[in-house]
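Marked as duplicate of an earlier ticket. Keeping the data here for the record.
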Amino acid sequence: MSLYADYLKEIDTRKTQGLSPKPIDDGALLAEIVEQIKDLKNEHREDSLKFFIYNTLPGTTSAAGVKAKFLKEIILGEITVAEITPAFAFELLSHMKGGPSVEVLIDVALGSDEANAKSAAEVLKTQVFLYDADTDRLKIAYEDGNAIAKDILESYANAEFFTKLPEMDEEIQVVTYIAAEGDISTDLLSPGNQAHSRADRELHGKCLISEKAQEEIQALKLQHPKKRVMLIAEKGTMGVGSSRMSGVNNVALWTGKQASPYVPFVNYAPIVAGTNGISPIFLTTVGVTGGIGVDLKNWVKKLDDEGKPILNNDGNPVLEQKYSVETGTVLTINTKKQKLYNEAGDEELVDMSSSFTPQKQEFMKAGGSYAIVFGKKLQTLAAETLGVEAPLVFAPSKEISHEGQGLTAVEKIFNKNAVGVTPGKTLHAGSDVRVKVNIVGSQDTTGLMTMQELEAMAATVVSPIVDGAYQSGCHTASVWDLKAQANTPRLMKFMNDFGLVTGRDPKGAYHAMTDVIHKVLNDLTVSDWDIIIGGDSHTRMSKGVAFGADSGTVALALATGEASMPIPESVKVTFKGKMADHMDFRDVVHATQAQMLEQHGDNVFQGRVIEVHIGTLLADQAFTFTDWTAEMKAKASVCISNDETLIGSLELAKSRIQIMIDKGMEHDNGMLAGLIAKADQRIAEIRSGEKPALTPDDNAKYFAEVVVDLDKIVEPMIADPDVNNIDVSKRYTHDTIRPISFYDAEKKVDLGFVGSCMVHKGDIKIVAQMLKNLEKTRGKVEFNAPLVVAAPTYNIIDELKEEGDWETLEKYSGFEFDDEAPKTAARTEYENILYLERPGCNLCMGNQEKAAKGDTVLATSTRLFQGRVVADSETKKGESLLASTPVVVLSAILGRTPTVEEYKEAVEGIDLTKFAPPLQAPATSRSMHF
């Protein structure tokens, strides 16, 4: 049977699901379609033309290669197709973005037919996705005296691909749609359990919010045909939890503008808003698509006569409505005045200058950030080739410098890695610059989208600027189902071919690793001066500064080795006092959030970098803190380490990288060996005193400072989603931190989960030690609730086996994963036993495994969003409470939260994760800058 016949079958199947034909990326299928177009009597010719013109993916897909070749034949007159004239063929090439289409356009532009050459040149002048192979051809032709090549390069030097684009509308009228009240997780826009469909944009679009919401959005569009729908988080922040490009894609699909009439289901320019603005990492993703993020400030704190907030009975500020944004409200965005007005435009509601920085306006004009990044590089290259100075077309890097002011840690990292800024100028927070990216991570539920983005921008190999790049398989590790079997090998092959080290070997030479990506990236980061970009909000390393990002920004970092972003403000976190022997470091993490709110009232971490002075913990343990900063709504975190601790962390990273090499994971490009060499160089710099561990300057300026008093942490704490809070905006935040005594040993626990990126080897050892302790005191261990344990990496399991802990876990387990026979279906029911699951994200991700609906789950995870780990039942809200490993284990055994006395007894003699604040000038320091 032909590929086309298979495609027709698939179309029939999709029809039953209310879906259009899937966009074509397979060159072999399109080759059949081309043959049917050539055959004037073919019964499928009319449909084949539609598929060819309107339903073929652009970029470097194999289908794009076939399409570009056929269009070239039409342009050169080698074949005639009545429905596709040469002029129309040029238009179609102009929408194909790069790769094969640019190659064809350069072929024609440098060819002997003068008329065709000029037409091709005019199209090329609009293109920006050119790589070295393309620009080298133009450069050689120019040097050989080719007038067309000179004309094209002059156009690039003047950035006509940008200057000739239409300006933004001065006024944009919007009609509001409240997606939900309170913080909106990106799970509402793109649920984790639908991750498998993200690359199929039309199918994935059907999971946005709810079917009812989609109908209401469509109704608003019909009622207001000339207005844009603005999606709102009322009394909350939009897009907390992750960058989630698929969420932005879904919003754009339902409310945005179509990018090209010849590319289906790729929309851009969504408008999203929140009472408390947009989560920083999600706002970056909105910018990637040329969208607008609005900080509404439509609810404000009610103040008394002295200007102080009036508090309610719970001690929370009383809010009053400044203006209404109820669904169906028409508002006006004035892009010139940068303000939000009422419908008539005569009443100013809120200033929007932060939404319309010069850089963001460029993204909006160009239809997204990619075109700007590539355009700037293309302009620079063309000007250098012509030997001229490039005119100032793009907004210059925003360079903010305060004379006499020192640098925070993140400011130091940005200054070191900045590209294209004034030489010798010191940059402070608020500057907006391009920076080199050292480490890039792609995870498996966003990886397929990153693949698409790389194909769309015609990239074929990882940038030489990038020191390390890794593709994980951890988010789909729990269940090797048909979806994973179809998607994961394809993803791994593409990424390995692109130049990444991959968790699964496309050739099957080494055992498939499902290690949690954040743990791997934490090892691959071998300098405290690195910048890391990863396709997940929990890209928070304990060395360098890491930013969680959408699949598109990850693709851009892989292809160019660069990212563009403002230097964030920092909040300094230091510690005093002493940890009680019975406390675990996870409780320090919870206490930081609680004490910050107590000290400042508002979440001063939101949108900023947390500079945490935690230098006595090795990278593995410190990662517990930096990882949590994603849930604090921070943009990133920087861990300030002392010299000896940093050396220890780098030596540990080297050993882990060597294990990857020993397992056969090294890439042909020698990436892993290069990282070990880089780590050795950094260790030598520290030991010699040439370049000590990164520290801020004494006179650095911070937005705020938080001092965590360890003496106040006297009992374990739980982050509670507070699902029944009368104030909807207070539910499912990470701000409700409660001591275990709050629950009076009466809170029923239906399932315990120890796993996710928040745990390290020490946590799994604690599980084993607690089981041995409890057996001694009770005679045997019986679980009153299921306990799921998922180690983050295979290395940890290997080490636990060597040290005897795994044997203890096996003794008590009722299920142990088997890589030779992985689960092919998600578990739907749990017994009251210990489950030893495969390394990976497991319940934390929520896309494969879940607790039973309505359950109360106590987990070491980071996720307490509605529906993530556990969904609501018809009679009870699901709860995902977060706590330390010993609290989770004991609660699963008891079937309820413990008393403080029960907890102390269970952990007696156990080596919990400890932390002591660094001394002012540690004796171990090799320099005055410890």
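See parent ticket for discussion. Residues 921-930 have pLDDT under 50 and may be disordered.
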